[in-house]
Specification:
The chain is α+β, with helices and mostly antiparallel strands and 414 residues long. It has three domains: 26-106, Double Stranded RNA Binding Domain; 116-213, DNA polymerase, domain 1 (Orthogonal Bundle), CATH 1.10.150; 228-400, hpI Integrase, Chain A (Orthogonal Bundle). 43% of the residues lie in helices and 9% in strands. It contains 18 helices and seven strands. The chain has a four-stranded antiparallel sheet with strand order 1-2-3-4, with helices on one face. It has a three-stranded antiparallel sheet with strand order 5-6-7. Helix 11 runs antiparallel to helix 13 (297-306). The longest helix is centred in the middle third of the chain and has 20 residues, at 177-196. The chain is extended. The N and C termini lie far apart (95 Å). 28% of the residues are buried. It holds the Pfam family Arm-DNA-bind_3. Residues 221-393 form the Tyr recombinase domain. Belongs to the 'phage' integrase family.
């Protein structure tokens, strides 16, 4: 009786084609149409319709089938892709996951990013997408840059403790309370970012520093506002049709903040509605929600005049480039020897609403773009009170233009 000797089973944990390597050529990589092509040993080429492609390494480890990207064909030549695939096959033969090993090495490399100045810049980069205008204005980073990094920037982040933070922020803790608070918050974010990179930092250091610094004595001061009774006379003085006068007029008529007004673009206005992008609204956590501003007849007339000055799509351009600045409007009021500032007209409007109308609180706060109620309440309330605000702002326009200031009764939507 003859015994049939069977060949040993081939280990298929990496790829069925391990015995057949280097099946592709550089010409094939460059000219192959859309599709998936095996080079053997788990290395695959995924070509797209546009001619581009991606290297992918397929493997099985711990009974789990996985794919790991090795880069695009435009950046990784065939030779390099094969070398990387061979390194990955070696890792698999050691019963390890190449993807996890790559992540581990990245974390080790990131741990060399250890100075606070490097961590701060990396944290800033990772948050740019959630900041207004990608943080171009630098307001997020400036408290760190001005008050923290000069002293602690070159200190390894793992060595920073509450005493270092206290000594750094103590000079401004009371005199520049708001700036100090922002610097402390940004520093806390940097410490969390360092921890996410795998560094051994004290995540409680900022809270401990707050305890050492004590409660801030500084109290915020309100921006001076013109009493609502004096607004009509000031509005009447803004009559020369310049960009500054028109900007102040629309600021008064709408009650918006100066930022959205200065960057007002023609396409944001449709009919009698001005839609401010959510990203331009200060203090709103949900930047996807836009804010609608009803424009009175007087406001529309101001917009019509402003269009004569429009440049680059902006209704309120500056003399040289960009848009009119906050300081330009403020200087006009300074030259008139007024204590009030442009932002204060929001308070003027709010006081007029409270003292001369019976407008419900929710509507009055919505006029100023404030978020009203908790998250649950807002999820059930689908209105932005646009119709009520349209009537209210029409009456405000009548008042500031000297056409009357009768009491107005507002009924809140259910």
């Amino acid at each position: 009786m003859h015994h049939v000797i069977l060949p040993p089973k081939v280990d298929q944990t990496v790829d069925r084609n391990t015995r057949s390597l280097n099946k592709l050529s550089a010409v094939k990589v460059r000219t192959a149409p859309e599709g998936k092509y095996s080079d053997g040993g788990g290395l695959w080429l995924h070509k797209r319709t546009d001619g581009g492609g991606q290297w992918v390494f397929r493997f099985t480890v711990h009974g789990r089938r996985r794919e790991m990207g090795l880069g695009s064909v435009s950046q990784v030549p065939l030779k390099d892709a094969r070398e990387e695939a061979e390194r990955s096959r070696s890792i698999v033969r050691s019963n390890l996951d190449p993807i996890k090993e790559r992540e581990r090495k990245r974390r080790e490399a990131a741990s060399s990013l250890h100075l606070l100045k490097d961590i701060a810049l990396d944290a800033f980069e990772s948050r740019k997408a959630e900041l207004k205008g990608d943080g171009v204005a630098g307001r997020w980073f400036s408290p760190l840059e001005l008050h923290v990094l000069p002293k602690l920037g070159k200190v390894p982040v793992i060595d920073i403790d509450q005493k270092d933070i206290r000594d750094t922020l103590a000079p401004i803790w009371h005199d520049k309370a708001d700036t100090a608070r922002k610097a402390m918050n940004r520093l806390g974010i940097c410490m969390k970012h360092a921890a996410a990179l795998g560094l051994e930092v004290d995540l409680q250091a900022t809270e401990k520093a707050r305890a050492l610094l004590g409660k801030q004595r500084h109290k915020a001061t309100n921006i001076p506002a013109l009493p609502w009774q004096e607004v009509p006379a000031f509005y009447l003085s803004l009559a020369d049709g310049t960009v500054t006068h028109l900007a102040l007029r629309l600021l008064i008529l709408t009650g918006v903040r100066s930022g959205p007004l200065r960057f007002l673009r023609e396409e944001q206005i449709e009919g009698d509605i001005w839609t401010i992008p959510g990203t331009a609204m200060k203090g709103r956590k949900d930047a996807t929600v836009d804010f609608r501003v009803p424009l009175s007849k007087e406001a529309l007339a101001v917009v019509k005049q402003a269009r004569r000055h429009a440049r680059g799509g902006f209704l309120f351009p500056s003399v040289k480039k960009g848009v009119i600045s906050d300081a330009t409007m403020a200087r006009l009021m300074e030259r008139a020897e007024m204590a009030a500032r442009p932002h204060g007209f929001r308070s003027s409007l709010r006081d007029w609403i409270a003292e001369t109308t019976s407008t419900p609180h929710d509507i009055a706060e919505t006029v100023l773009g404030h978020t009203v109620g908790g998250a649950v309440e807002r999820s059930y309330r689908r209105t932005d009170f646009i119709e009520q605000r349209r009537k209210l702002m029409a009456r405000w326009a009548q008042y500031v233009t000297g056409q009357g200031g009768q009491l107005l009764k507002m009924i809140k939507e259910a």
